[in-house]
Structures are given as C-alpha cells and as structure tokens.
C-alpha cells in the first residue's frame, strides 16, 4: 500500500509540475513593449555626440574674449598643491605608469624640479584659459588679465 501511495504522489507531482511549466510558458505575455514609445513632448535637443561645429551657437550679449569688460569686483585666488608623504608625485613617475594612464604628455620630472614645472605650466595655461572661463561663468562679473 505504501508503494501505491508513493507512485500516486509521484504522478500527481509530475503532472502538477507539467501544468505549471506549460501554463506559464504558453500563456505568459512577452515582457516589455514591441517598440520604444513615441515621445510625449516635442524633442528640441540633440546629443552632444551627434553635434557638429555647425550646431554651435555663442552665448548672446557679450564677447568673452574682449578685455574692455569691467568687472563688478576682482576676486583673487590661490592654487595650493599638496604633497603626500606615502606617495611619489604623479609627475615624477614615468608617463602612463599609473593605473589610469597618468601622467599624460609628461613624466619623469625630478622631484627637485617639480616646483618650476608647476610655475611654468600654470603661468602658461592658467593665464590663457582661466580668464575666459571665469568671464563666461560669471557673465562678465569676474575678470582679470
């Protein structure tokens, strides 16, 4: 009698698993949409990766490259470069030796020449780009030459 009960349970269990498996795969709707829905609002933007120089429109009202713009106030700032005692300066390492590929375009600068490197680098590059950047960001309120 125990064997028949076992066989009956086994057959009922197998049939139940079969019904569950067949019913979910046969009658279940395909998940997701057939296609991406149309936008609700009209689209008026373009991804930057798809833009060209023909799409560029300058900010109206101010020519950011002119020196005749007078600032409302002059702000002075300082750039402080720190040294970590447990690490070598990035620029003292060989070019591309760091995990992210830094330093790029330079490297192997002796430690005693790093100060001169930064003075030269910042005086050349910061003087070129910072005024244009800050004039643009502040809409002409911050300016220096």
Describe the structure.
The protein has 145 residues and is an all-alpha fold. It is built from 2 helices and no strands. It has helices at residues 2-27, 114-137. The radius of gyration is 34 Å and the shape is elongated. The mean pLDDT is 76.
Concise synopsis of the structure shown:
With 145 residues, this protein is an all-alpha fold.
What is the share of helical residues? 25-40%
Major sheet attributes: none
The tally of strands reads 0
Q: Ranges with pLDDT <50 over ≥5 residues?
A: none
Number of helices: 2
The global form is: elongated
Order of helices and strands: HH
Radius of gyration: 34 Å
Kindly name the structural category. Answer: mainly alpha
User: What is the arithmetic mean of pLDDT?
Assistant: 76
Cα-to-Cα separation, first versus last residue: 102 Å
| Residues in β-strands, percent | under 5%
SSE topology sketch:
Elements: H1 2-27, H2 114-137
Tags for this entry?
mainly alpha; 34% helix; 145 residues
């Amino acid at each position: 009698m125990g064997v028949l009960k076992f066989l009956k349970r086994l057959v009922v269990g197998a049939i139940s698993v079969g019904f569950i498996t067949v019913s979910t795969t046969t009658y279940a709707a395909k998940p997701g949409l057939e296609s991406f829905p149309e936008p609700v609002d009209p689209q008026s933007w373009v991804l930057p990766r798809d833009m060209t120089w023909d799409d560029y429109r300058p900010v109206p009202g101010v020519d950011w490259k002119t020196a005749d713009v007078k600032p409302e106030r002059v702000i002075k700032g300082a750039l402080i470069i720190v040294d970590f005692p447990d690490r070598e300066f990035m620029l003292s390492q060989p070019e591309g030796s760091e995990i992210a590929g830094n330093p790029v375009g330079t490297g192997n600068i002796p430690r005693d020449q790093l100060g001169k490197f930064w003075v030269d680098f910042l005086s050349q590059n910061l003087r070129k780009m910072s005024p244009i950047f800050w004039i643009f960001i502040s809409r002409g309120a911050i300016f220096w030459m």
